């Protein structure tokens, strides 16, 4: 305080408040307010003047205290406002909580501030945010309920403060907590609860590394920050729940959209298939429509063409079955396997598309049944025509050809007559009759698709099928046995005649061919080859007994034709050598005497025969057939024959 200020206080009319107003204006410390009084006393001013200065000093200090309080409250309110603003724009909970402890530490002028949260699963509280902490062990502390000052705050939901933690016995001291507090060097600690409603979710702390008494205003301020921290946590939890709910809603909306798309696709498939059925479309039309829907290639195949194992699995399960990169859906009706829908090269089929393929298979079976019921009359007509060919020999060829043409059959083509019979044991007469009906139905279907004829006869079924180029009667018999067996789920044995031609001009040839097919069928069953198919040509010399026309020349040609042709081309004597070899008990030594040649010549000729007939030509079965063929060749070569 300058002498001018003292003199101004001594001048008449000058108030004693002037020097203190100047101190207030420049924000002087509290100690500076003593100087005007001390200077007045030193100058020997009157007592009344000194008392006036003392009064002014007290008023000035009071005003200063009020101003300091206002500034502090303004700072506190500003910090609370900023924290509330951060909370309003909450994006990162950790950042908001860090800001809260930073501002609490700054406003309370403490060394450390930190925040713990309750762990419901563990039943304790853990350190979440720290500011000013330097000890790693302290930053990892966990406080059980009732342990330490924080545990007591969490347990009682009330603020607690201690000027000297280690000297305060109100708390349950534990080695872990005390070690952490000691590592951090804390002495004075203030803790206030974080509350959401009536629930304590954590504790906010302010602490000093020296003894300190926290004022009531400081406790209230920290409590305000704790309320904001609790609100931030509650808001974050609500946001998390909201985000989760929105995510669930988005997922539900996605599912609804997917289901809507599924329903729309299913409706589209239904409309397409219904339209196909109404306009009389066929199975290939269904396959084409489903190909467009599934964006792949769908084909209808016969039961004997599709892979057997997955086809049977699909039939048993009633669902489409994956086979390598394809999907196979069995087409069935009443236990009968009619074929399959095959989706090619589409391994990643989802359940919706799988059901679409299965629905298409069902529609295909309905179309096949509808077509079957529509062609049953045609099948009966086919059966009547075949019965007429088998029974009547004096029919007009022109009429027979016309009847066959209406059924898309060509009696001028080469055909094979096949006798088919079930070989499964039936439990009773009803089951046997049902099995025969299934066999006739399957045979009729096969005949219709192959431009042939079929009829039920002699407890089985007879078929008249055209013989395709490059195919033998044996091939046709075996393929037919497999097809019918697959269709009826029982072994079916098929005996085939040799090829027959000009059926309209020679209807008696059909009856003879059927008798030949029956003999082959009986031979198969006697040989234990049930479920197989064969023609007379498969039975070697027994085929001569089975064949209706006794085609001796064909038998000789099949058996030793290569040897005969070699002799004719080269002028050799292999046939005569074979005759002598068998006549001499297959002894080369006796054969050379019979032929009057060297034994090496016999060996060379027999080696040539082996190259022509095969290495097994001397096996008992082949040797018997060759000897019979040699005799028939010799007989057919006699003069006059």
Beta content comes to 5-15%
Main β-sheet, spatial strand arrangement: 3-2-1-6-5-4
Task: Report the radius of gyration as a whole number of Å.
Answer: 56 Å
The average pLDDT is: 80
Overall strand count:
15
Separate helix tally: 22
Q: What structural category arises from helix and sheet content?
A: alpha+beta
Major sheet, described briefly? 6 strands, antiparallel
Which percent range fits the helix content?
55-70%
Overall spatial form: elongated
- List low-confidence stretches: 5-14, 544-549
State the end-to-end CA separation. Answer: 165 Å
Task: Explain the overall architecture.
Residues 5-14 and 544-549 have low confidence and may be disordered. This protein has a six-stranded antiparallel sheet. Helix content is 58%, strand content 15%. It has helices at 3-10, 18-25, 35-43, 47-88, 93-108, 136-139, 148-156, 175-184, 216-278, 283-294, 308-317, 351-391, 397-406, 429-449, 473-488, 508-526, 542-546, 552-570, 574-583, 588-595, 599-613, 620-636; strands spanning 112-119, 124-131, 142-144, 160-162, 188-196, 199-208, 297-301, 321-323, 326-333, 336-344, 415-422, 453-457, 460-466, 492-496, 533-535. Helix 5 (93-108) runs antiparallel to helix 9 (216-278), helix 10 packs antiparallel against helix 12 (351-391) and helix 18 (552-570) crosses helix 22 (620-636). The protein is elongated and about 175 Å long. The protein is built from 22 helices and 15 strands. The chain starts with a helix and ends in a 5-residue tail after the last helix. The longest helix has 63 residues, at 216-278. It is of the alpha+beta class.
């Amino acid at each position: 305080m300058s002498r001018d200020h003292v003199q101004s206080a001594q001048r008449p009319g000058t108030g004693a408040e002037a020097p203190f107003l100047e101190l207030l204006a420049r924000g002087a410390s509290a100690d500076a307010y003593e100087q005007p009084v001390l200077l007045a006393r030193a100058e020997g001013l009157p007592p009344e003047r000194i008392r006036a200065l003392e009064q002014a000093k007290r008023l000035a200090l009071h005003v200063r205290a009020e101003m300091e309080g206002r500034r502090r409250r303004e700072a506190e309110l500003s910090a609370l406002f900023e924290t509330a603003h951060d909370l309003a724009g909450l994006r990162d909970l950790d950042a908001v909580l860090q800001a809260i402890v930073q501002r609490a530490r700054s406003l309370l002028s403490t060394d450390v501030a930190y925040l713990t949260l309750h762990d419901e699963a563990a039943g304790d509280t853990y350190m979440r945010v720290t500011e000013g902490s330097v000890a790693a062990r302290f930053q990892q502390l966990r406080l059980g309920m009732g342990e330490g000052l924080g545990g007591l705050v969490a347990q009682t939901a009330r603020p607690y403060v201690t000027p000297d933690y280690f000297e305060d016995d109100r708390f349950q001291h534990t080695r872990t907590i005390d070690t952490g507090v000691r590592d951090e060097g804390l002495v004075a600690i203030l803790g206030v609860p974080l509350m959401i409603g009536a629930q304590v979710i954590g504790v906010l702390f302010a602490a000093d590394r020296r003894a300190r008494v926290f004022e009531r205003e400081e406790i209230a301020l920290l409590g305000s920050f704790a309320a904001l921290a609790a609100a931030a946590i509650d808001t974050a939890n609500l946001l998390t729940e909201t985000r989760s709910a929105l995510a669930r809603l988005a997922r539900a909306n996605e599912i609804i959209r997917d289901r809507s798309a599924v329903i729309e696709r299913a409706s589209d498939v239904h409309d397409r298939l219904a339209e196909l059925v109404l306009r009389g479309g066929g199975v290939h039309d269904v396959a084409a429509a489903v190909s467009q829907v599934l964006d792949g290639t769908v084909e209808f195949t016969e039961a004997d063409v599709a892979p057997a194992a997955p086809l049977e699995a699909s039939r048993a399960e009633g669902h489409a079955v994956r086979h390598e990169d394809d999907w196979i859906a069995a087409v069935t009706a009443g236990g009968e396997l009619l074929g399959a829908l095959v989706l090619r090269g589409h391994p990643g089929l989802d359940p919706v598309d799988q059901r679409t393929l299965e629905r298409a298979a069902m529609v295909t079976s309905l179309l096949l049944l509808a077509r079957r019921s529509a062609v049953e009359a045609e099948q009966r007509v086919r059966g009547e025509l075949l019965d007429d060919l088998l029974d009547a020999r004096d029919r007009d060829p022109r009429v027979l050809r016309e009847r066959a043409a209406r059924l898309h059959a060509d009696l001028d083509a080469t055909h094979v007559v096949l006798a088919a019979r079930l070989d499964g044991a039936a439990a009773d007469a009803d089951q046997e009759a049902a099995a025969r009906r299934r066999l006739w139905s399957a045979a009729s279907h096969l005949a219709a698709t192959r431009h042939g004829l079929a009829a039920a006869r002699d407890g089985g079924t007879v078929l008249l099928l055209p013989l395709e180029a490059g195919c033998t009667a044996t091939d046709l018999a075996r393929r037919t046995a497999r097809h019918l067996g697959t269709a009826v789920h029982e072994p079916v044995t098929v005996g085939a005649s040799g090829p027959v031609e000009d059926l309209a001009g020679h209807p008696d040839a059909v009856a003879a061919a059927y008798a030949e097919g029956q003999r082959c069928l009986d031979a198969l069953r006697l040989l234990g080859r049930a479920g197989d198919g064969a023609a007379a040509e498969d039975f070697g010399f027994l085929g001569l007994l089975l064949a209706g026309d006794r085609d001796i020349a064909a038998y000789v040609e099949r058996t030793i034709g290569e040897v005969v042709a070699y002799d004719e081309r080269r002028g050799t004597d292999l046939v005569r050598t074979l005759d002598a070899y068998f006549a001499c008990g297959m002894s080369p030594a006796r054969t050379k005497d019979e032929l009057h040649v060297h034994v090496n010549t016999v060996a060379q000729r027999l080696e040539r025969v082996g190259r022509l007939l095969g290495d097994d030509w001397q096996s008992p079965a082949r040797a018997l057939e060759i000897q019979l063929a040699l005799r028939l060749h010799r007989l057919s070569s006699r003069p006059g024959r």
